[in-house]
């Protein structure tokens, strides 16, 4: 016997059997741990001290927003826009900043041990005083980035563009990865690179060091050191 199902009932049955879609981001919610601000616009806001631990901030636009002193531990900020934003003094241990756009952003004094900045656009970003042990900057764009007094032990700069970046007053107490990093006029005066991995003489020839720069065994300071002072 052929059963004829009314069209309305059939539609309900199809809806019931369809997979439940992911809940839409709650862009109107106030900052809180584990919230979902994916692809929301949070531009030019004052969000100092916000607790966004574990939050989903994928592709969120934080351009010109003050996020200083916030908590971003384990948060996902992949592909977020942080142009001229401030995360100064924030906690971001284990956070994901992969592929962020963060031209002239301030990460000064941030605690971001184990964080990922892989593939990020970080030209002229300020990492002064940042604690970055074990962080990854693989394939990141770091032209003219400032790492004054930053802790870079165990950092991965593999394939990164460090052109004119300033690492001269940073601390590297142990290994750090520089394989295939582009180091045109990278400031490494006084930097202890004796335990760094992946460095080649060609990179050193392009970089700017001085007599206090410590190089790995087998590499030597070029005759062009020290570089002249650069005026922007």
UniProtKB/TrEMBL annotation:
Signal peptide residue numbers: 1-24
Keyword Signal in annotation: yes
One Pfam entry name: Pentapeptide
Keywords: Signal
Name assigned to this protein: Uncharacterized protein YjbI with pentapeptide repeats
Species of origin: Rhizobium lentis
């Amino acid at each position: 016997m052929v059963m004829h199902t009314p069209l309305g009932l059939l539609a309900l049955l199809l809806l019931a059997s369809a997979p439940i879609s992911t809940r839409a981001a709650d862009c109107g919610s106030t900052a809180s741990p584990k919230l979902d601000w994916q692809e929301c616009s949070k531009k030019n806001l004052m969000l100092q001290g916000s607790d966004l631990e574990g939050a989903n901030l994928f592709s969120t636009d934080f351009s010109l927003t003050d996020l200083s002193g916030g908590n971003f531990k384990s948060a996902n900020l992949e592909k977020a826009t942080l142009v001229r934003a401030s995360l100064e003094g924030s906690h971001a241990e284990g956070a994901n900043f992969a592929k962020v756009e963060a031209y002239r952003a301030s990460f000064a004094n941030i605690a971001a041990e184990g964080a990922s900045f892989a593939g990020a656009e970080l030209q002229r970003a300020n990492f002064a005083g940042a604690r970055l042990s074990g962080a990854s900057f693989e394939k990141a764009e770091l032209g003219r980035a400032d790492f004054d007094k930053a802790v870079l032990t165990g950092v991965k700069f593999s394939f990164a563009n460090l052109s004119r970046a300033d690492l001269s007053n940073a601390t590297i107490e142990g290994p750090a990865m520089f394989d295939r990093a582009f180091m045109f006029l990278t400031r490494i005066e006084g930097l202890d690179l004796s335990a760094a991995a992946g460095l080649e003489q060609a990179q050193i020839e392009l970089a700017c060091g001085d007599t206090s720069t410590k190089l790995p065994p087998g590499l030597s300071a070029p005759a062009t050191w020290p570089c002249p002072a650069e005026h922007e």
